[in-house]
Amino acid sequence: MSDFKLKENVMKKTIYALLVGVFALSGCEKFLEEDNRGGITNEEFYRTEAGYRSIVSSSYATLRTTFGRQAPWLLLGGTDVYQMNRGFDNRALMEYTQLFADNGDVLTFYRNCYEAIQNINVAIFYNDITEVDEVQRKTWLAELRFLRAFYHFMLIEQFGGIVINDEPTLEEPRLNLPRASLAESFDFVISEMEAALPDLENDRARVNQAAANHYLAKAYLTRGWDLEQRADFEEARQYAEAAIGGYSISIPYEELWSPSNEMNDEVLFAVQYDGESIGDVSEGNNQQSLFGPYLGGAELNHKYMTSPMIPSWSLHNFYEENDARYDATFMLTIYDQYFDYYDGNKDKNEMLIRAYYPRVWGREYTSADSLAWVQGKEHQIASNFRYYPFKYDEQEYRTNYQLDFVTPVIKKFDSPSTRQIFGTHVSVRDIVLARKAETYFLYAEASIGLNDFGTAEQYVQRVLDRPENAKGGGTLRPSQSIANASSQSEALDGLLIESAKEFAGEYLRWAELRRTGKLKELCGRYNFDIRRVGAEEAFRGADGQDKIYRPIPQAAIDINEAQVSQNPGYN
């Protein structure tokens, strides 16, 4: 098992990692008190291969805390393709009107990133003394520098210019940490990733060169939009091409997301889990539970849906009739027990059906359609069988959205190996953070930045040409032409519709909309909750400016002795 497949005792060490600057809650002594009960010094412990390997492992383990413990509110909330759930949880991040600098989920994300950075800084600090061969030492250093840059980039995507932390807090906490400019923040991330790149290896279970190239493409692309630097789009295309590495999109979509096909050839970077890498299966991740309505309690033997984000009516409408990804993304038939879908020993023609989500494309589902569907299936239908046809009237579709089962759930992230446990964090599926289909989209987006719309559509088309994507052996085409767009804005509209379908449920959407300048526009067009309020009202802050970035947590501003400016919209 690789270091990235972490043992639970190693993972737990991250909770003792030193906090940086504005969240400096403990010193190095506390960290070593938990990590090293034998009383040896930092230098003695990290000089050994076992000691140093443990802090490298704990640096990777921070990914689980950041991406696997909370709902991805900041990564997906308040976009065009997810609507609020029945409890209106986190209305602040889903609708913006109540988003202020004291938001707890913003603070948690901010803290998690900086805790991870501090853990990594300690590992980097002791890298030069560890007694391993030079190649291994340099490889570990490159992995750590990439991870540190990755977390800084995650913060840039959400907050703009950030506090750059590139040194460990080994004694007294540092409380005077100025906020860097946006340009300085990008320069740090890009220079760190580029410095790490040559010494990374090609081990797909760890940070590797393809993943670094992918994130360099994304960093350059984001800077190109944010700072209006055309040359950055050229750099983004070069790094995207390097990350693609000649790979053709070749795995059918259903197979791509099969629970038995993790870390397949398309995956570049993932937060990895397996049943052996955690001491308690309830310490897995929550991804399978996030997207769709509640499916009832443990007595029904379905997966536990926490349901913070419901796939929107607009997302369903982006798909076209011949798009096989729709069936591969959503669980359109729920059997008597949800995970029976994955049981190859059971005949689906004989299994009872609890819920069915029929759709007739371009018109409403009728009773005649229902009677036609049920012919020959009478023996399958349980007494509590229900069907929930898709409604083309958005208001009607949403009328009952607070009910159990009412819309199909996303199935891409299902963890059938832990089906026996009904809980919120029982998935041992990897959380895929980057895959090569996205790299193709990054290349396409950079091409739009260069006004090369024809090339942009070609790269999107290479993803649409995935085997078995089109039902009946046809060809999928973009729902809205990119090549024939009359403007960058129109080309981006076409790209973003295709991205929504390809990456439904993956942790990309908010940053994608923000960097392209489409966040407010597409939320106002496609997000029912925001459209109901009005996009102008939803995004406008008390200072009259739009809330396009997330707020710097007020707790961080208060404790920082440096003068830290708040983002527009929150003053």
From TrEMBL:
- In what residue span(s) does the RagB/SusD domain sit? 315-570
What range(s) does the SusD-like N-terminal domain occupy? 98-221
Q: Which GO terms describe its cellular component?
A: cell outer membrane
> Which cellular compartments is it found in?
Cell outer membrane
The protein's matches in Pfam families, at most eight in alphabetical order, are given as: SusD-like_3, SusD_RagB
- Tell me which family the UniProt entry assigns to this protein: Belongs to the SusD family.
Protein name per UniProt: RagB/SusD family nutrient uptake outer membrane protein
Q: Which organism is it from?
A: Sphingobacterium haloxyli
